[in-house]
Design a protein that fits this description.
single chain, alpha/beta, Rossmann fold, Alpha-Beta Plaits, 2 domains, 4-stranded antiparallel β-sheet, 11 helices, 37% helix, elongated, binds adenosine-5'-triphosphate
Length: 302
Amino acid sequence: MITVNNLYKNYGKFPALKGISFEVNNGEIVGFVGLNGAGKSTTIKISAGVILPTKGDVEIDGYSVTKDKKKAVRNVGWVPELPIFEPNVKALDYFVYLSGYYGISTSEARSIGKKLFAELGLSGWENTKLDNFSQGMKKRFALAVSLVSNPNNFLFDEVLNGLDPQGIQFFKELALRLKKDGRAILFSSHILSEVENLADKVVFIHKGKIIGIKKIEDLRKLVTRKVIKVVVNDPNSALKVCEKYGKPTLINGEIFINDFEGDIPSLAVDLKPYGVVEIGYLRENLENVFFQLISEYEKTYQ
Ligand SMILES: Nc1ncnc2c1ncn2[C@@H]1O[C@H](COP(=O)(O)OP(=O)(O)OP(=O)(O)O)[C@@H](O)[C@H]1O
């Protein structure tokens, strides 16, 4: 379990994190979503014990990353946003070297490494220098490294970036397998459709603050909510007709009917006198929810 507790991080005078808290429970996949510079990587690096917070803490299975770092990070697998490895070392040799940090013997590490390389589609690349790996292959290698100590907790920072569709599929299957095993998984991603598919919970971060934590069931309720968008030449007069079909609101000359009941062809007939331009379902997606949360935050804090 990963517990982020009132975390602050200043880079010089710049406050990158302003007191954030959330949890990743065992058996839970949590999507971490925010714009560029929101503070995702900073949170993940602190949780991996790579940088220190200014204030607050992260606990990994109850161990503090600041006070009990050795025990805390032993149980966490981390894939950095931009993995940096020794470029001139052969991939499997480097894997064995990194495994040494976890007290794994050379022979055991070679055998685990070969198995993980095969699972991650890197078979045949064991003796290639990491410098000659593509970005996606480096991500696959980083994933293999994160799995070496078989940890209970995972921090995946933009792991889908640079992966091809096969790599993305592998990652999804891996994350679901780890979840089934009761591990805690935090993954940041800009690919919101993948977050929607994979996460049990989504934590939204903006300008170093958490602006929303939503369970995927609640997000799904939002995304499947029946909203009809109506564009007509005379929207003010058309509003009355729309009231028969649900709860209409007029926004920028367009009518949005919430809780729509009835059928679109009948609505189209009723609206004919007002000059119909467009009628259709509006599918809310995670992106809309995200931008809604950001606009609420900006209205409150500007
Ligand atoms: N080492 C550093 N020194 C100074 N400022 C930093 C440093 N690392 C990050 N920042 C700043 O802190 C803020 C948060 O950065 P962070 O990398 O955590 O964001 P992010 O949400 O991961 O963004 P992205 O999606 O672009 O990777 C940004 O404004 C960034 O410029």
